[in-house]
Write a structure and sequence with these properties.
The protein is built from 2 helices and no strands. The chain has about 70 residues and is mainly α. The longest helix has 22 residues.
Length: about 70
């Protein structure tokens, strides 16, 4: 779910992102069963809820603090 947290921060701070295709690991593609799909979908919703709550001003989360830790440019 780490990737969704990064995307949630990007959405909150109105950053632009680039989407690029990633080839499957093997020829048949990636197979995900229903249970794993549901768990992943719920995780995505769990990561979107804090974004909405902070945008609505109901709760403040450190992950969306503009004065928080920054990565140094490489």
């Amino acid at each position: 779910m780490f990737d969704n947290q990064i995307l949630a921060q990007a959405a909150f701070f109105a950053s632009r992102s680039v989407k690029f295709p990633a080839p499957p690991v093997f020829q048949g593609g990636l197979v995900i069963n229903l249970k794993r799909s549901i768990v992943y979908g719920l995780g995505v919703l769990k990561n979107r809820l804090p974004v909405r709550l902070q945008k609505w001003g109901m709760v403040r989360f450190p992950i969306f603090d503009a004065k928080g830790k920054k990565l140094a440019p490489s």
